[in-house]
Amino acid sequence: MASSTALRGRRVKRQLRTSPWLFAAPGLLITGAFILYPFVSTVVNSFTDRRTLIPGRFVGLANFRELLHDDMFWTGLRNSTLYVLGVVPALVVLPLLLALLVQKNIPGIAFFRSVFYTPVVASVVVVGLIWVWLLDERGLVNSLLETVGVGRVGFLSDQWLLLLSAMAVTVWKGLGYYMIIYLAALANVERELHEAAAVDGAGAVRRFLTVTVPAVRSTMVLVGALSSVAAFKVFSEVYLMAGPSGGPAGEDTTLVMLVQRTGTGLTGRVGYASALSVVVFAVTVALMLLVLRADRREES
Amino acid sequence: MSVLEKAPSRRRPAAATAREPRAGLRDEHGRRIRAWELVLRYVLLLAVLALTAGPFLWQLSTSLKGPTEDIFSSPPKFLPGHPTLHNYERVSATIPVWDYALNSLKVATANVVTNCAGSALAGYALARLRYRGRAAATLTFVLAMLVPVEGIVIAQFTTMRELGLNNTLVAVVLPGSIGAMNVLLMRNAFRNLPYEIEEAAYVDGANVWQRFLRIALPSVKGTLAVVAIFSFMGAWDDFLWPLIVLSDPSRFTLTIGLNYLHGTFAGDERLVAAGTVIAVAPLIALFACLQRYFFRGVGEGAVKG
Fold first, then answer.
1. What is the tens place of the pLDDT at every residue in A196-226?
2. How many CB pairs below 8 A link A and B?
3. Using the beta-carbon criterion (under 8 Å), do A146 and B243 form an inter-chain contact?
4. Same domain? B112 vs B14
5. Interchain proximity B74–A146, CB inside 8 Å
6. Domain end residue (candidates: B65, B86, B107)
7. pLDDT in tens, B190-239
8. Do B117 and B201 lie in a common domain?
9. Exposed, middle or buried, A129 (CB in 10 Å: 0-12/13-18/19+)?
10. CB–CB of B76 and A106 under 8 A?
11. ipTM of the complex
């Protein structure tokens, strides 16, 4: 790098002053106009009563005070939080077990790995509709349950079963993705450690807990962080399975569904939806910090 | 990222030893796998296979069942008695599904082109060019990557209204057209290239564009392929943003069209099933051909994200 500095000619110097900005300009422009500006404008709008067709006035904290008395907001916050609590443990543990299952290079394993990844590739809309049909009152799952004598279950009509089913679909769709992340981490686990533990007479479960888990612990934290942020922002699965209005009496509405419902359309309350969005930002940041802090505490 | 690519190559010697006579199957540590363990593994693998592939196959089977065939039977009938494409004809008679597919293809292709070009250019500037403000530019992309898209869709929507782009496919593409994460991925790829090659070209009088196009870019083709594939998949699968920005049914993409189909003809399972198969088949085909890059992208994205 030092030698290139010595080689700089005057012409090149001039070129170097303008061209970097030309190179970066499209990216900076798009990012500024469609990510950072909307972010700032969301925060600003949250202090106004702006509507889709009506420019807003500054109303101070009125939107946030309204939030506190809005039952739908608390429903949304509850459901999005429950989603994190339900989905994250499953997505931290199950893909790790799956990765251990596909790690050994036995015949046909590449085929299994690919098929396990397929739900990741499919659109969440496709996945959602596939499961709406599977979990239908007269769908395949209920046919099977009836055949084995359990009887039919209203997966998509009960408020709590609906939320639980949506969580299961999120986990089903995410398994393959996190499996690949764990596979990369497992490739780095020292095989000597496993052998030493085996010689010491540790069984498979003991070896998993004392060798594998500590070795992939930082990956587990990463998966926890990624999946908890994604789970809190859940929209599509619940929207498709419970319907746009969020299931019976709207009781399955998530926070992002509420943002979408409140802020869009010709009568959309942009100001209030922005205040809801600010809550989404705040919780997202808090979740990240929480996971990272838990990681650091465990380390020390 | 590189860890992922190392993984299979590390196992290759183990696979080679497995072919030796009487050696039996060995795991990646070179230990023999016992027969009962092997059986247990395949049983579990097949169980997970049924769970992951089963729902797709059931959807395919439903879409191929004719109007007279019972799709609600208990115990269920897994194979269609008289497979027919009737439901696919019905989908295209009900909604302009091929127009929607074309819209999705347009959006996805545009997303690939803009992301590849934009993130390669910006990534190169961040990695290789020395200029004042580079740290600030890098920080801009890092911050943008951390912004949760779900929280800004309403403001993006009002921004599009102000630009008069609402309800157009351009508006669907624009916000994600140069993803911050792709820029940072490309930046890392360029940074990992040895500097000496470009230095030699520099001495030979090659200017910035020539160095970028002829030397740097061909060396990061792998990462560029990852960016391309994930841009295509992201645009093809996206739901929330097109749902918000598109209101005119003639401009719908496939995912929004499917949502409409489901909302209007929810009781017609064969019809919805045929629609979902149309939407998912191209991506599964793409995945089958380019698996390597899909897996590699997960590793790179996770390291960054």
1. 777 777 777 888 888 888 888 888 998 999 8
2. 304
3. no
4. no
5. yes
6. B86
7. 998 888 878 888 888 888 888 888 889 999 998 999 999 999 999 999 99
8. yes
9. buried
10. no
11. 0.88
